[in-house]
Amino acid sequence: MNRNIEASTALMTDMYEYTMLDAALKDGTADRRCVFEVYTRHLPEGRRYGVVAGTGRILDAIRDFHPTQDELRFLSDNHIVSGRTIDWLEDFRFTGDIRGYREGELFFPDSPILQVEGGFGECTLLETIILSILNYDSAVASAASRMVSAAKGRPCMDMGARRASEGAAVAAARAAVVGGFQGTSNLLAARLYGIKAIGTAAHSFTLLHDSEREAFVAQIDALGRNTTLLTDTYSVEDAVKTAVEVAGPDLGGVRIDSGDLGSLAQRVRNQLDALGATKATITVTNDLDEYAIASLQTAPVDSYGVGTMLVTGSGAPTCAMVYKLTEREGASGRMEPVAKKSVGKANLPGRKLAYRSYEYNLAEAEHVVAGDEEALASFRPDEGWRDLLVDYMVHGQADTSYQGRDALPRANEHRARSLSEMPISALSLMKGEPVIPTLTEVI
């Protein structure tokens, strides 16, 4: 095998997953059928809901989860696994099943967000890559959704690339779109996922020139009159006047990146209108979060550029999701529900079904039904309950409709629909309990 090391995700994991595999191969339990579940015990403090994001990236990561020769050599040379395990890994491919919540679906405490079924060895290897993607992407999408709700229909754009690591910046841009954002400054994310690319010039471009007027002329010559000019390098009022003088009434827009954004937006709107640039838009940036966006609802702002608070989940950079074994094949060959009993960390045994019930077209509860395979096969939900689980992979074959560019707008549309079904308190930015309860049942 001569696969490029960059194409493999096989070492994006914790060492104990490989050492567990090694030990399980030695004692003969590596092929025991198992069901692992991803869920969170609680939402970030005060949040009303979460948004699932990253499942499309998980399918990509599993596709690429096969160790290269260099990676196998690393595992061997560092005595992480035995020679027998190296042989087992030579042609490794995940052959199991994955079911879970659709990307863009809302989730709550104890929602069975993802269920991974297969041999213990193949399932345990995927734990870290699945959690790292789901925890981060869902945190960003959840924050983005709150920001989009606060924006009341005005576009939100991702400008957070310089506030995250390079890989996380691309993941965040994608997750932000799941959450309802409409563009990104990150060109790699734009290319990979077909996201609208945004951006014109920074303060340094103005400072480079001998005058603000020269900088504006240069930008308009390069990008056209429909460009957006940055107006707060010096005096906002002077900059707006110069911008209209240079671009004329066809000026595309201005950006404000500092100061009292609401007051400045109002003054700038009045000034633009007085100067004849009535169609020029106003974009605001500068450490925005959902609360700052909500405070600007009455200001004449046309769009928001969000950076730090987006890529850090607006104070909740992870969803605290865990990956737990809930069912496994016993010595008899029968599948048996299992669970931890640790204080504060106990989990519901068995594989799960998940539904959402409604009253007067509004969601009223999340229903999680646990049991063995036979019991769940005979379970019949109440009329009107919506099944929340979809098949992502069957016998190692991925449903590619959940991958790639086209999956992204569908995930955002699904989020919007799911959120519209929630009680209006889901849109509240005040701290509170999850907007609907999660009801669990063991059958």
UniProtKB/TrEMBL annotation:
Catalysed reactions listed for this entry: 5-phospho-alpha-D-ribose 1-diphosphate + nicotinate + ATP + H2O = nicotinate beta-D-ribonucleotide + ADP + phosphate + diphosphate
Top-level EC class: ligase
Molecular function as annotated in GO: glycosyltransferase activity; nicotinate phosphoribosyltransferase activity
Coiled coil: none
EC number from the UniProt entry: 6.3.4.21
Domain Nicotinate phosphoribosyltransferase N-terminal: 11-135
Domain Nicotinate/nicotinamide phosphoribosyltransferase: residue ranges: 156-326
UniProt cross-references to Pfam families, sorted A to Z: NAPRTase, NAPRTase_N
PTM field: Transiently phosphorylated on a His residue during the reaction cycle. Phosphorylation strongly increases the affinity for substrates and increases the rate of nicotinate D-ribonucleotide production. Dephosphorylation regenerates the low-affinity form of the enzyme, leading to product release.
Biological pathway: Cofactor biosynthesis; NAD(+) biosynthesis; nicotinate D-ribonucleotide from nicotinate: step 1/1
Protein origin, superkingdom: Bacteria
Keywords attached to this entry: Glycosyltransferase, Ligase, Phosphoprotein, Pyridine nucleotide biosynthesis, Transferase
Free-text function comment from the UniProt entry: Catalyzes the first step in the biosynthesis of NAD from nicotinic acid, the ATP-dependent synthesis of beta-nicotinate D-ribonucleotide from nicotinate and 5-phospho-D-ribose 1-phosphate.
Family named by the database record: Belongs to the NAPRTase family.
Protein name in UniProt: Nicotinate phosphoribosyltransferase
